[in-house]
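Good morning,

Attaching, inline, the backbone tokens for the sequence recovery test we're adding to the shared suite. The designed sequence is right after.
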């Protein structure tokens, strides 16, 4: 479908060479809307100048632009000229390879910002400290994405700013009223109040839970999916929940989840192969994950038959149902395998093992004969 010109038409060897409209040619000679559906490919042009899905050749790149240059690197890497360079090991994501160039951290680590920029250092999560030292935390009552943050400072005139107790001389004017008991009662404009502290929607952890602060108050106007702020207190919805009334009462589920049939207050994951399903039935698929096709509200692996009129294609990694739902799936991408059916990754691992064994054997034989010669 969508083929404009093809080679050897109306034969078993027919292959599309150019697609209609905005569709692009896949490596298997099919036409598709959006090459992003093929992991690791981008919409470019082939040698003949026709629209085609091309493999992104930049190592550790998540998304390439139409010129084949990397737009977005994988987590743990950052753009460095035409390549993706490795972040410092302390960072989850970063803007550069330095320890203070982190833009996000792994769970149990908190991003400590340096200056007015959006980068910083990943430091251990909040731990309560007894005593009245400046910049220390009395209570770590805020938890976001697996990391604990400060909810009250030891020094009464201090308060948590972006989850960290900051000395009065070092913090910005984010608290409108004078802090008391280590918390802020009213935050300044542009900040929202959460669990005793003041937070920005442009920095972590605030931007994880709030997309926009209210103009005329210190509340969160637009909470992020999975969170709710009730009079400045953060409520984390249950797993898979998009909006909730309380932690135990989910109103709507996130994509990839559906209401639990035995407990409608909770969400459960869609069945394997489904990226989206019926809001009230996790077994009824509406959108399939990569490597699966939709047939009668079920997601079937591209190399498997649906038990009816659709058949799979061996080693197919991305597909869609055939026209009129009869015959083999339209396969967009074939997994890279050899004649034995092993993937290139498995072959590489076997090759390394063979080299190690052979190298060890050669070394032993050399040692043996040298020793024998001396004897």
């Amino acid at each position: 479908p969508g083929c404009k010109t093809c080679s050897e038409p109306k034969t078993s060897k027919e292959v599309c060479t150019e697609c209609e409209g905005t569709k692009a040619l896949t490596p298997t000679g099919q036409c598709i809307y959006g090459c992003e559906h093929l992991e690791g490919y981008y919409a470019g042009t082939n040698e003949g100048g026709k629209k085609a899905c091309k493999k992104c050749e930049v190592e550790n790149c998540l998304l390439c632009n139409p010129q084949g240059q990397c737009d977005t690197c994988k987590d743990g890497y950052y753009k460095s000229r035409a390549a993706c360079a490795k972040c410092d090991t302390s960072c989850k994501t970063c803007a550069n390879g330095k320890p203070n160039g982190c833009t996000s951290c792994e769970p149990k680590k908190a991003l400590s910002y340096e200056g007015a920029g959006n980068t910083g250092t990943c430091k251990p999560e909040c731990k309560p400290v007894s005593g009245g030292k400046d910049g220390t935390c009395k209570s770590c009552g805020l938890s976001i994405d697996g990391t604990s943050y400060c909810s009250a400072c030891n020094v009464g005139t201090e308060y948590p700013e972006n989850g960290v107790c900051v000395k009065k001389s070092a913090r910005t004017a984010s608290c409108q009223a004078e802090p008391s008991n280590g918390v802020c009662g009213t935050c300044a404009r542009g900040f929202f109040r959460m669990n005793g502290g003041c937070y920005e929607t442009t920095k972590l952890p605030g931007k994880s839970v709030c997309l926009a602060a209210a103009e005329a108050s210190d509340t969160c106007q637009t909470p992020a999916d999975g969170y709710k702020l009730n009079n400045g207190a953060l409520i984390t919805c249950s797993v898979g929940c998009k909006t909730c009334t309380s932690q135990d009462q989910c109103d709507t589920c996130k994509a990839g989840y559906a209401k639990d049939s035995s407990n409608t207050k909770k969400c459960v994951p869609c069945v394997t192969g489904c990226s989206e399903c019926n809001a009230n039935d996790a077994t009824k698929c509406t959108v399939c994950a990569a490597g699966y096709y939709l047939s009668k509200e079920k997601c079937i692996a591209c190399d498997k038959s649906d038990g009816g009129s659709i058949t799979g294609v061996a080693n197919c990694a991305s597909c869609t149902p055939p026209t009129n739902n009869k015959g083999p799936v339209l396969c967009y991408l074939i997994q890279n395998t050899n004649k034995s059916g092993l993937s290139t990754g498995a072959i590489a691992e076997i090759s390394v093992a063979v080299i190690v064994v052979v190298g060890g054997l050669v070394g032993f034989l050399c040692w043996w004969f040298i020793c024998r010669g001396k004897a």
